[in-house]
Write a structure and sequence with these properties.
heterodimer; A: 110 residues; mainly beta; six-stranded mixed sheet; 44% strand; B: mainly beta; 0% helix
Chain lengths: 110, 112
């Protein structure tokens, strides 16, 4: 069975500092990985997916199959990045089913 | 505007009542999902559907039931609510293929 682990419940950084939100997964197949974000009083929404290999709002994430990780990074955090971040894995069998991690709350202090 | 809607946003109700949480989407998506999320915890898939007349149970066992009579509508029902059902319920939909899921605002359910 697949599993997604986000080891940090809370990550607090100062504005302008680099940020890395950790995500590790366990899955025997070929995973697709996503980062979803939920800003205060807003819906959960897709931030980025590994297959797109793009940078969204300055965030990037690289899939490391050797370390089974998909950490989310941003070189210079902004206050508006404060939100709840969820890593999710989509299995390659039927269904488009997502398994979510427990989430990390990012707080960017001024 | 194409969107996904959940009603009610909040519901506080007594034990033993029958509850239906509504979820509708106007995006024409075939796939729909229900997740349960306790405060500060991960989302757990409890039900999903591939299309009309298709319903499947998710990873987390739930006493709730769902139906999919119309493409746009995916209601979740609890026949007899209990305090253990207190949680947030999130509905989502997606297109076929490896497409991202679009989430509703959620329903915060409190059973007294």
């Amino acid at each position: 069975a697949q599993r997604v682990t986000q080891p940090e419940k809370l990550l607090s950084v100062f504005k302008g500092a680099p940020v890395e939100l950790k995500c590790n997964y366990s899955y025997s197949g070929s995973p697709e990985l996503f980062w979803y974000v939920q800003y205060s009083r807003q819906r959960l929404q897709l931030l980025l997916r590994h297959i797109s290999r793009e940078s969204i709002k300055g965030f990037t994430a690289d899939l490391n199959k050797g370390e089974t990780s998909f950490h989310l990074k941003k070189p210079f955090a902004q206050e508006e990045d404060s939100a709840m971040y969820y890593c999710a894995l989509e299995s390659d069998n039927a269904g488009n089913m997502l398994t979510f991690g427990g989430g990390t709350r990012l707080m960017v202090k001024p | 505007e194409a969107d996904i809607y959940q009603t009610p946003r909040y519901l506080v109700i007594g034990t033993g009542k029958k509850i239906t949480l509504e979820c509708s989407q106007t995006m024409g998506h075939d796939k729909m999902y229900w997740y349960q999320q306790d405060p500060g915890m991960e989302l757990h898939l409890i039900h999903y559907s591939y299309g009309v007349n298709s319903t499947e149970k998710g990873d987390l066992s739930s006493e709730s039931t769902v139906s999919r009579i119309r493409t746009e509508h995916f209601p979740l029902t609890l026949e007899s609510a209990r305090p253990s059902h207190t949680s947030q319920y999130l509905c989502a939909s997606s297109e076929w293929g490896n497409q991202p899921q679009h989430f509703g605002d959620g329903t915060r359910l409190s059973i007294l």
